[in-house]
Amino acid sequence: MNFSSIFKSISNFQFPYTLEENSIHKTELWTVFHGIRKADSVPITAFKANKNSGTDELITNCLQKAKVMKIPGLCPVFEIYDSDPNNTYIITERVSPFNWDQLTTYQRNLQALQLGIAQLLDTLKILEEFIIGTISPESIYVNEKGQWLIFGLELLVKRSDVNSHIFSNMSKHYYTIQGFTTYSNDYKTVDALNMYHLIKHFLSGKVPKDWNTAMNMLSKGSITCSVFLQKIVNSQTWLNNRLIRLDKDLKEIHIKDAEGKFIIMSTFESLYFESRQTFSNMSPGFIVGAIIPELISIVNWLQTPQSITNKNSKILHFLAILLELTDEHQFYPKEFKELTIQMFKLPDRQIRFLLLIYLPKLLEPLGKNDITNRVFPQYLQGLSDSDVTLRLKTLKTVPVIVPSISERQLNNELLRYLAKTQVDPDVEVRTWTILIMTKVASTLSASGSRASILGTAFTKSLKDPDIKPRLAALYGLEKSIDLLDVSTIAGKILTVIAPAVLDKDPLVRSKAKVLFNKYLEKLESEAASVATDTKDESQDIDFDNYGTNDNELSEQFMTSLRLNSPSLEEVNTLKKSSGAFQNDDWDSNNAINEDIQWGDNDAWGEETAFENNNIPVLNINNLQGKKISIDDSWNNDILEEQEPITHTTKSTAGKVKPKMRTIKTTSSRTLTLDIEDNENINDGWGDEW
User: Which ranges does the UniProt record give for the HEAT repeats (predicted)?
Assistant: First the structure.
């Protein structure tokens, strides 16, 4: 139930807090809710009073004391709303009930438990003039800095004002309502006995030996809590507990200047590296609320010009602790995000190397947008750094950062740097380059030139003088087989692998041969599933004897020519009927040449002719020969586009202007010889023929 809605209806008063629907804790007297202040979103805790006739007097005393008791160690009160008896609230800073379910875990770090006990004893020392009377497991709360606090002043009374009879009755009534065990109703011993049992509950029989004497006195009520504290502060257990000393410094750090804060955090640094387990299994909030914010503050200060000399080494140490603690507690405040981005800009190689170690854990808290725009440009510089260790470490983290960068950064900027590291002087860098290419191959743009990029990269590495890059290239080809289509494999990849089969190293040869067969099997598998496009089955050809049976065709052709040739009698008849041709001297021929009119275009396929209408035509139709069959040839498609050529011979006995020869094409497959019969035309060969 959201109790803010109830407040809105009370006297038209707007409740300035938003509470969560579900309570975090509940007793017979109080129901506890987490919430935030509407004005500035500050986290708060609201204690709603469960008022009734049996609890009214106890709650009223608690409200009165909470208004005036501003004591360190008590839950700090922001406001009290008690105008409506049915809706009474105590608003404090964000606190949570001690998690008793985790007590076994906390007991693994006894120093941390002793610190919490010391914090409670410090509070009781301040309140030594008062009787609290309500110290119990239910009254212990922890704030966001991990400090143990006390809530519940239902029986609080000043020692000088106490009425033993009234206090005894109220104490009995309180423990009856709460259902707690009563150890004492005597105001003189109640706090001592309650604290004794609380300490035993925390330590579960692991009370330090040098505390035993004081504990015995406390169990009898013969000393107060403040006296008990005085006795144990000089024990070796107390003096050796560096958390207690650190906690006292942290409580005062807000009043220290920058150098004072630096000294305190240097103490923490020394303690952390000396004994890491000291800060494990602590109360929630100590690391997150007290340590991490101060680490961020001190690292930011060390980047200023006013800080100490040799500050980079201190930044490195503090940053290492900060990165480890934020990851362990999964706590990344806004200030941490900005600080980390600034750290990537520092030129110090050790700091950049440290950031690379934690890069996989920083991607989520930093966010993809900041990785792309603010971190990646600085990150790329590590691939070209002069220090080989940093180059190699940067290279190894490429697969980590690839999912957080843009496609342009991957396929353009990053690949350019990888092309440089592939020819790096260091063999490990060259080897890791091809391994990284293999790991990011699936993220490269498939629509682009992925196959070409991979083929080029693997080819270069297969030519590397060292065996490691060559083996890495074969490994990459094996892992990338599913990323390459069969066309790319046939056209590029097999030609990449084939030279490795002749490698001088037997291991490379062996692996290359196996890989070649693996790719070949993929091609054969694909070929088996390819549908044939030919209607007729293909027949094998014996090319050794291909074309050797041309003699038969030649004989057929010559026989055809003989059958189509005119007989001698026909030729003599032709001579008698046509007469002899008249020939002019050479000048006539020159005149003919000068009068030939060539067209502007001498290309094939256009019709031209000799222009002379006075030339007699030789036409011997009666000597028409037989048609000669010509088989189709390899260039039949070209021939089909041309018309058959018709030859017409015209001659003259005098000075003539001959027409150009006309060439016509058809799709006919026969060649016909047409000769015009004209007795007045000389055939030009003479009577001897």
Answer: 375-413
Residue 377, token pair as written in the block: 């440009």
Q: Please check whether residue 563 is in contact with residue 526, taking contact to mean a CB–CB distance below 8 angstroms.
A: no
d(CA 292, CA 289): 7
- Kind and range of the H or E run holding 525: helix 506-528
Are 72 and 159 contacting, i.e. CB atoms less than 8 angstroms apart? no
- Burial of residue 2 (CB within 10 Å: 0-12, 13-18, 19+) is middle
Q: What is the pLDDT of residues 253-271, one digit of tens each?
A: 999 999 999 999 999 999 9
CB of 347 within 8 A of CB of 341? Answer: no
What's the confidence (pLDDT) of residue 424? 95
Q: How many CB atoms lie within 10 A of CB 463?
A: 13
Between CA 263 and CA 255 the distance in angstroms is: 13
| CA distance linking residue 315 with residue 294, whole number of Å | 13
User: Cα(162)–Cα(536) distance, rounded to whole angstroms?
Assistant: 117
The two three-digit tokens of residue 364, written as one number: 């989520």
- Residue 13 is predicted with a pLDDT of 58
Amino acid code (one letter) for 458: F
Structure token digits, residue 625:
């020969």
Look up tokens 């030729």; give the residue. Answer: 571
Render the burial of 44-53: b for 16+ CB within 10 Å, e for the rest: bbbbbbbbee
Residue 399 belongs to what H/E stretch? helix 398-401
| Cβ-contact 311, 347 below 8 angstroms | no
- SS3 category, 462: helix
Question: Could you tell me the end-to-end alpha-carbon distance of the chain, in angstroms, rounded to an integer?
Answer: 130
Q: Please, what's the b/e burial string for 102-140 (b: 16 or more CB within 10 A of its CB; e: otherwise)?
A: eeeebbebbbbbbbbbbbbbbbbbebeebbbbbbbebbb
Q: CA 276 to CA 290: how far, in whole Å?
A: 17
Distances 638 to 35, 604, 605, 634, 671 between C-alpha atoms, Å? 90, 13, 13, 9, 17
The residue whose two tokens read 């610190």 is 115
Model pLDDT, residue 535: 54
Rg (the chain; Cα; Å)? 52
Q: Could you tell me the two tokens for 224?
A: 């107060």
**Location of structure tokens 């390819």:** 530
Of 654, 645, 589, nearest to 616 (Cα)?
654
Euclidean distance between CA atoms 501 and 503, whole angstroms = 6
List Cβ neighbours of 452 (8 Å cut-off, separation of 6 or more): 492
Compute φ and ψ for 255, nearest 5 degrees. Answer: -100, 0
- Comparing CA positions, the residue from 397, 496, 412 lying closest to residue 454 is 496
> SS3 for 559-612, per residue?
HHHHHHCCCHHHHHHHHHHHCCCCCCCHHHHHHHHHHCCCCCCCCCCCCCCECC
Q: Which residues contact 248 (CB under 8 A, 6 or more apart)?
A: none
Q: Where are the alpha helices (DSSP H) in 10-126?
A: 56-68, 103-106, 110-126
Where are the alpha helices (H) located in 233-373, listed in sequence order?
236-239, 242-251, 258-274, 292-302, 311-329, 334-343, 349-366, 368-370
202 by DSSP, 3-state: which? helix
The count of other CB atoms within 10 Å of the CB of residue 568 is: 8
Query: Which H/E stretch holds residue 166?
Result: helix 164-178
Q: Both tokens of residue 596?
A: 């030939």
Residue pLDDT, tens place only, 508-555:
999 999 999 999 999 998 888 876 655 556 778 888 777 777 777 778
In degrees, to the nearest 5, what angle opens at C-alpha 311 toward C-alphas 310 and 314?
A: 110
